């Protein structure tokens, strides 16, 4: 029998339920599920939003009825990204399907085709990060800022190739950082448009950053497209995701290229989605990994021991992670426990649909609470505990079925396009850092793992002392 969706907490005019939701929405939404069930509606400002919690409901919505939940809401602030042509924030449409096909092919290419030098880029930049941390960390260092800077460089180079780190690139990476922070800090403008006046200065800075990023990136993108026309071997010397995107575009059928509404911009600006989506999520996940290793030093030692014992840390590819069961368990426990993108990106329904027999009308905003999935008591024993051992059997082997229940990249049609790259970067950089550096606590500092809230959760600043590990 079809029922209407349960109403969540009382809502006030204009504000909706924002006071009950508070500053950590993923926790409030998880708590509310105990009262209102796994699927319920809240008002955020003036907008009705369906919250989907827990493993079963999320699987039913995003996998079972994937197409029905595959769109994104058209928020005002998102229209400034990539001149309104962003794939990550685009509506589910034929245009998005073509963008998605190109994006997946490009990620696959940079992961497998040596000309994109993905591995060299990651190793070179990670070695610089190691040196940087060692140089600065004898007394006290802030690992997160160094990790962020390094991952931004890696992401930029993976996207556009190595074009040098001159002023426009630095300014570009700063703009990318600032505009994403504006979004991920929980920008209220899209839910309560009247806050735009109050946040005028912040919003203006945000739109300026979007324009700056668009101008610099579009110049690189259209310039590279022209090079490809003149010299089909252009990828030989440049080699970034942008080249892989152009190559994948060329391989589309005529029918796909002529999709109604599709422009060259929709394709080229996928690179900007990669730059935006790639930097923050990877940098924050890695920062969480290091924070947990500082807090749980015995786990840090066990990871290092496994890497050193197995092969001196000479890691070849993502599949190789399977040779490091303890390390794989630790990374997945960080993915689960930190849930660094707790509410995924906002979804919206493409048609009238159902979850748990509850009717959800077309065009409704839906938030998939990945945090609740990662803390679902039906799936996880003592979910609040940080315990990598939950993924290991008595012989220390990985329990694959449990690993597969961890969903930091989301599920279904809109799940992270960069998942294989993201996983690889986290694995590669994390193992290198732990192999080369011992992270020590600073006496007197409490290593608090309560995050700062945002679309992506960031740890609070944490200091560390660092000592180099000399043997290979
Ligand atoms: C540890 C690293 C990463 C994590 C945890 C992560 C997580 C996520 C999540 C949760 C989503 C939203 C899924 C949804 O709405 O249901 C997403 C979307 C996305 N991510 Fe990632 N991501 C990571 C790395 C990357 C990287 C390296 C790239 C770039 C190559 C990337 C590109 C994207 C794109 C383009 C989307 C939008 C997909 C779409 O709407 O079609 N991500 N990511």
What does this structure look like?
By secondary structure, this protein is an alpha/beta fold. 50% of the residues lie in helices and 8% in strands. The chain has a domain at 93-338 and 388-468: Orthogonal Bundle (Cytochrome p450). A hairpin with a 2-residue loop joins strand 6 (353-355) and strand 7 (358-360). The N and C termini lie far apart (63 Å). The model has no long low-confidence stretch (mean pLDDT 90). Bound molecules: protoporphyrin IX containing FE (HEM). Protoporphyrin IX containing FE binds next to helix 4, helix 13 and helix 18.
SSE blueprint and pairings:
Elements: E1 3-4, E2 6-7, H1 18-21, H2 25-36, E3 39-44, E4 47-52, H3 55-64, H4 94-112, H5 118-136, H6 143-160, H7 167-184, H8 195-198, H9 200-230, H10 241-250, H11 254-257, H12 264-268, H13 270-295, H14 297-311, H15 325-338, E5 347-348, E6 353-355, E7 358-360, E8 365-368, H16 370-374, H17 400-403, H18 419-436, E9 437-440, E10 465-468
The site of protoporphyrin IX containing FE (HEM) has 27 residues, from helix 4, helix 13 and helix 18.
Main sheet record: 5 strands, mixed
Radius of gyration: 22 Å
Identify the bound ligands.
protoporphyrin IX containing FE
Per DSSP, the total helix count is 18
Query: CATH superfamily of one domain, please?
Result: Cytochrome P450
Average residue pLDDT: 90
Report the β-strand fraction as a percent range.
5-15%
**Any idea what the CATH architecture of one domain is?**
Orthogonal Bundle
Question: Strands of the largest sheet, in order across it?
Answer: 2-3-4-8-5
Helix content: 40-55%
SSE order, one letter for each helix or strand: EEHHEEHHHHHHHHHHHHHEEEEHHHEE
Shape: globular
Q: CATH fold name of one domain, please?
A: Cytochrome p450
CATH class of one domain: Mainly Alpha
- Which regions have little confidence, pLDDT < 50, spanning 5+ residues? none
- Structural class comes to alpha/beta
Please give the alpha-carbon distance between the first and last residues: 63 Å
Number of strands: 10
């Amino acid at each position: 029998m079809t029922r209407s969706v349960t109403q969540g907490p009382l809502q006030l005019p204009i504000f909706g339920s924002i006071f009950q939701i508070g500053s950590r929405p993923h926790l409030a939404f998880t708590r509310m599920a105990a009262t209102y069930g796994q699927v319920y509606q809240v008002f955020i400002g003036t907008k009705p939003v369906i919250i989907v919690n827990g493993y079963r409901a999320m699987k039913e919505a995003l996998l079972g009825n994937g197409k029905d939940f595959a769109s994104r809401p058209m928020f005002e602030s998102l229209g400034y990204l990539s001149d309104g042509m962003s794939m990550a924030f685009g509506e589910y449409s034929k245009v998005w399907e073509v963008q998605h096909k190109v994006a997946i092919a490009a990620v696959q290419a940079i992961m497998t085709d040596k000309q994109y030098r993905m591995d060299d880029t990651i190793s070179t930049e990670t070695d610089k990060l190691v040196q940087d941390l060692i140089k600065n960390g004898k007394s006290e260092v802030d690992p997160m800022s160094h990790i962020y800077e390094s991952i931004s460089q890696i992401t930029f180079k993976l996207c556009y190739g190595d074009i040098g780190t001159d002023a426009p690139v630095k300014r570009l990476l700063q703009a990318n950082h600032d505009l994403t922070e504006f979004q991920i800090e929980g920008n209220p403008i899209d839910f309560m448009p009247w806050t735009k006046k109050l946040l005028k200065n912040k919003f203006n800075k945000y739109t300026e950053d979007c324009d700056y990023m668009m101008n610099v990136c579009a110049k690189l993108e259209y310039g590279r497209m022209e090079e490809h026309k003149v010299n089909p071997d252009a990828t030989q010397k440049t080699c970034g995701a942008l080249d892989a995107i152009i190559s994948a575009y060329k391989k589309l059928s005529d029918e796909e290229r002529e999709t109604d509404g599709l422009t060259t911009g929709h394709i080229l600006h996928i690179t900007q989605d990669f730059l935006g989506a790639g930097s923050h999520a990877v940098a924050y996940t890695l920062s969480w990994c290091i924070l947990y290793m500082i807090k749980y030093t015995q786990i840090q030692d066990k990871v290092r021991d496994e890497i050193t014992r197995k092969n001196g840390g000479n890691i070849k590819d993502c599949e190789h992670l399977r040779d490091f069961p303890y390390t794989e368990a630790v990374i997945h426990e960080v993915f689960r426990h930190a849930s660094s993108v707790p509410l995924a990106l906002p979804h919206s329904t493409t048609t009238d649909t159902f979850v748990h027999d509850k009717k959800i009308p077309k065009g409704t905003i839906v938030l998939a609470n990945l945090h609740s999935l990662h803390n679902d008591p039906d799936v996880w024993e003592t979910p609040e505990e940080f315990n990598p051992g939950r993924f290991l059997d008595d012989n220390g082997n990985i329990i694959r079925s449990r690993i597969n229940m961890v969903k930091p990249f989301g599920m279904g049609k809109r799940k992270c396009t960069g998942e294989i790259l993201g996983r690889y970067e986290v694995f590669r950089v994390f193992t290198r850092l732990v192999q080369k550096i011992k992270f020590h606590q600073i006496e007197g500092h409490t290593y608090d793992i309560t995050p700062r809230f945002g679309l992506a959760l960031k740890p609070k600043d944490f200091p560390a002392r660092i000592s180099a590990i000399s043997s290979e």
